[in-house]
What does this fold into?
Amino acid sequence: MARTPAPGTRRRILTAASKLFSEQGVRAVGMQQVIDETGVGKSLLYREFAGKDELVAAWIRASDEEWWKTAREVTDPYQGDPVRQILALLGFFYDSVRSPDFHGCIYYNTSSEFRDPEHPGRKESVRHLRRLRDWLRDLGVLAGATDAEDMADALMLVVGGLLNNGEVLGGDGPARMALPTTELVLRQYCPTAVSAASA
Amino acid sequence: MARTPAPGTRRRILTAASKLFSEQGVRAVGMQQVIDETGVGKSLLYREFAGKDELVAAWIRASDEEWWKTAREVTDPYQGDPVRQILALLGFFYDSVRSPDFHGCIYYNTSSEFRDPEHPGRKESVRHLRRLRDWLRDLGVLAGATDAEDMADALMLVVGGLLNNGEVLGGDGPARMALPTTELVLRQYCPTAVSAASA
DNA sequence: GTCTATAGTGCGATAGAC
DNA sequence: GTCTATCGCACTATAGAC
It folds into this structure.
């Protein structure tokens, strides 16, 4: 009889691609390296993904899904307290940046590697960052922010600064100031809610 | 006697390389494109620059020099008023990001494209960002900041967020909040100096 | 395996300054 | 015409997409 398709092939490829792409950058990694790392055959890889661009997009999409899962786990304990949820989220970013596996934010990095707005990997990356910004705005509304749009954009400044300086300047650099600066922003836009959360 | 060497060849190559690299990213641009854009011969290009890595490093170095020149022009009118100098500098960043020629910060982008700490282009990029951070710290000291190191790192968060979100999220996005957030940080670390500057 | 692209090398032809 | 800077092309080798 015919051999049954091995389960989880797609996942194995994505895991290997994720390691290589995030550590070295997408353009620095060839498809051959992905193949070598997985042990999968070339034909199987190309049956699973139409091309490199599609592999990149699938990697970003999978990372995005996993990220939201973790982000919700991190903020769920503070359900009903949006200010603490924001602080928990920024704390999660901070921990990620300080982790030894951190090699820069894949969404910012992939956007910078592919400037064509039509590139599937860029599209997915931009989509992720937009959703993050919108989530921060929604939390701001829940927190009764005086201006939730402004607050979300100010927080994206902190997030962008945290994620992009981490790999470049030392570990004791700007990252250290991410939480204090977040509190500064929160105090500006939700003074009453922050006092309550500090209590 | 002999033909005279054309002056400014190096500069012409750097100008073309700058356009291509900053618009499309370094790895997306081949040496042939640089050659086509300048009309220069391959042999001349390789006599002027040992290889692509060296061209990239030279481009970053030239951009860095030009940047400092402009940055000083922007802050010089506020000589003796470091708080206003910082605000002018952030205003300059803001204007750059909103300019139609902005295609992302070349220092952050090049760092993200080349992860090898030994890559000459990365080295120059990191050096630029470190010098910027140190300048902000020095201005913080002059402004009598309660903690100039913390303030510089907090401001680098704003700078990093501003420069890295600009190309990704819309023009009306986080960039808009860069100056208000800078003021927030300044007020936190130099309350008296900011009041004086606002007066 | 195949085809393309890219970094880098080298040489002959050409274009100018004298 | 002579001399040299520089171009343009051919070439190799390597790597990458598929």
Notes: Chain B has a mean pLDDT of 94. The CA atoms of residues 50 and 154 of chain B lie 39 Å apart. Chain B is about 70% helix and 0% strand.
